[in-house]
Each structure stands twice: as structure tokens, then as C-alpha cells.
């Protein structure tokens, strides 16, 4: 393999030791302002992405078995941490792909899937608290192999093309005045908010199960419909934040009532629509201060905290710039080539 030694450590052609970054390092002022995504940010995304896959796969299993229109899926904070650490380790494996010049198929079709499946077997044994290694069925192997191809060809490749501008909060337009900079495209932000909604609900329901049922497994649940609800709602709330904060100069506590009114209106509207098809996964009828079992003031503190956190997430997303070859394009290429 075309690897060489530089003062001791083994280095592959074109490889950077700091992470996933593949583009040439900028210099001068650009180097200080534009860099690869920080480690904590990648860990955060990997955990959120893993929870999304947990919910998606478990929901599809329930649909096949029970034909449940509520599309309920499951995950837990434990699994979120495991996903973060697992994909961070896989990121390091992915960064060694340049050690296979001229033979990318060996890495993508054999080495990476083998490492990924091995980690999944290990995680399965840890989850079951068993001393015996859990063997995977042929169906599970096929699913894990497909997921390994997705992670290798799409996820890690897309993450390596994202760059972060840590200090940019506002940019001066040519016409004068300040406005937020352009970050990720709208569709990517919608996907991010939808996945983050899964994470929010899994964490929230796992804590409730711990308090109400003493469930130490911290199993949480959500619904695939929540992806559309959180993705669209957070997308609109972000637009409100950008307009009210950067254009009108409104402070946090002045914006907050507008956020809350929109969130409750959106939750009620979506719940009322889903209830017509017996697909609504929540019912607050047993909680005080509820309206038609679709919204309740009991969750008001939670919505306030999430609204405040939404502004923080929006500011972080403002600093993320996509590479000209974006993640969505990579996904289309992977599907066409598959």
C-alpha cells in the first residue's frame, strides 16, 4: 500500500491527521475563519443520525408486523452515545481510505463493511449484556452491509465536505446593513431539524419513562410523522428568528411568545390531521390543561427550553458551509450507481 513514514507516524498520500478534511488547507485569514467541523459537532450529529436510523428501522418493523399507522419507533440515550462513538471510530477508518490508491473497491466493499459489521456485533452483545457474541442473521447482515455502503459512500463523504466558520454571525451585504450569512441549503436544514426532533422526543420520553415507570433502560419513542412535524416547524421558527432578530432587532423574550404560539398551533394542526387517519401517536387527555388531548400547557416549560435552544442551533448552522459537492448530490450519485 502506498503509505510512507514521516518522522515516525504512518501517513497516507493526501491524508490529514486531524479528521475527515480532504480539501487543501487554506492559509492566512481564511485558515482562521474556515475550517473542518469541530469534533464535538461531528459527535453530536453522529448520535442524532444514529437515533434517526434506530427510529426508522424499528418503525418499519412495526409497520410490517402490526400495520400501525402511527409509525412509532424506538431508541435511547444509551444508543445515542454508542452511535456517536461508533461513527467517530468509523470516521477514523474512513480517513485511511487513501491507503488503497487504485483499489477503492477493496476499502468500500470489503474493509469498511467488515469493520462496521464487527462493531455492530460488538454493540449488540453489549446491549444484551451477554458474554456470548450475538450472531447476525442473513437479513441483518444484508441490512448492515447496505448501511455500511451508505455511511462510507454518502455520510462520511458528505461530512468531509462540510466546513465550519466559528466566528461568522453576521455578514455585511453590498446594499448595506447586516444579515445572517448563507449556510446549509434549506432542504439540508429541514433534514437536520427533523432528525433533531427525533432526538428531542427520544430523550424526553426516556426521561418520562424513568420517572413514571422507573425504566432504567431509558427507552424512548417517537413517530416517523414527528420528523415532518419537527422539520417543518423548526424550519419556520428559524426563519422567524432570522427575521425578527437580524432584521427587526427583537430580543429573545420578545420573540419567545411568537415561537410558542406557532409551536402550539402547529402541534394542534398536525395532531388533528393525523387523528383523522388514526395516525396520531400522542394523547394528552389524561394531562391537566389539555385541549382535545392534542396540546397541553404541562409541556410549556419544555417548549420554552426547546425554543431557546432552537436559536442556538440556528446560530451554529449559520456557520456551516457546504462544499460545492454537497451531501444530497452524493446521495443521488450513490443511488444511481447502486
TrEMBL record:
It is found in: Membrane. One of its GO terms (cellular component) is membrane. Keywords: Membrane, Transmembrane, Transmembrane helix. The chain crosses the membrane at residues 106-123, 135-152, 256-277, 289-309, 316-336. The keyword Transmembrane helix applies. Its main location: membrane. It is a multi-pass membrane protein. PANTHER family: TRANSMEMBRANE PROTEIN 229 FAMILY MEMBER, TRANSMEMBRANE PROTEIN 229A. Belongs to the TMEM229 family. This is Transmembrane protein 229A. It comes from Amphiprion percula. The lineage of its organism: Eukaryota, Metazoa, Chordata, Craniata, Vertebrata.
Amino acid at each position: 500500500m502506498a503509505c510512507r513514514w514521516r518522522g515516525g507516524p504512518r501517513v497516507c498520500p493526501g491524508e490529514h491527521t486531524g479528521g475527515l478534511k480532504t480539501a487543501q488547507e487554506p492559509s492566512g485569514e481564511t485558515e482562521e475563519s474556515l475550517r473542518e467541523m469541530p469534533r464535538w459537532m461531528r459527535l453530536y450529529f453522529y448520535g442524532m443520525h444514529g437515533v434517526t436510523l434506530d427510529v426508522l428501522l424499528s418503525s418499519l418493523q412495526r409497520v410490517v408486523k402490526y400495520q400501525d399507522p402511527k409509525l412509532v419507533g424506538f431508541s435511547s440515550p444509551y444508543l445515542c452515545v454508542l452511535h456517536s462513538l461508533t461513527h467517530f471510530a468509523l470516521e477514523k477508518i474512513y480517513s485511511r481510505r487513501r491507503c488503497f490508491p487504485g483499489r477503492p473497491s477493496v476499502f468500500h466493499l470489503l474493509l469498511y463493511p467488515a469493520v462496521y459489521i464487527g462493531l455492530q456485533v460488538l454493540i449488540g452483545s453489549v446491549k444484551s449484556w451477554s458474554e456470548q457474541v450475538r450472531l447476525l442473521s442473513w437479513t441483518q447482515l444484508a441490512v448492515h452491509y447496505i448501511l455500511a455502503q451508505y455511511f462510507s459512500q454518502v455520510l462520511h463523504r458528505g461530512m468531509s465536505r462540510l466546513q465550519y466558520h466559528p466566528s461568522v454571525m453576521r455578514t455585511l451585504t453590498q446594499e448595506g446593513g447586516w444579515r445572517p450569512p448563507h449556510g446549509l441549503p434549506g432542504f439540508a436544514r429541514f433534514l437536520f431539524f427533523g432528525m433533531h426532533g427525533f432526538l428531542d422526543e427520544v430523550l424526553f420520553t426516556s426521561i418520562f419513562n424513568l420517572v413514571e415507570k422507573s425504566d432504567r433502560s431509558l427507552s424512548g419513542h417517537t413517530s416517523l410523522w414527528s420528523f415532518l412535524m419537527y422539520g417543518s416547524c423548526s424550519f419556520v421558527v428559524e426563519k422567524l428568528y432570522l427575521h425578527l432578530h437580524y432584521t427587526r432587532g427583537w430580543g429573545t423574550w420578545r420573540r419567545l411568545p411568537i415561537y410558542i404560539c406557532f409551536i402550539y398551533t402547529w402541534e394542534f394542526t398536525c395532531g388533528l390531521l393525523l387523528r383523522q387517519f388514526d395516525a396520531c401517536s400522542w394523547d394528552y387527555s389524561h394531562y391537566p390543561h389539555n385541549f382535545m388531548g392534542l396540546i397541553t400547557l404541562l409541556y410549556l416549560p419544555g417548549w420554552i427550553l426547546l425554543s431557546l435552544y432552537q436559536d442556538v442551533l440556528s446560530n451554529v448552522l449559520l456557520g456551516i458551509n457546504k462544499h460545492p459537492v454537497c451531501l444530497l448530490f452524493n446521495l443521488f450519485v450513490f443511488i444511481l450507481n447502486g
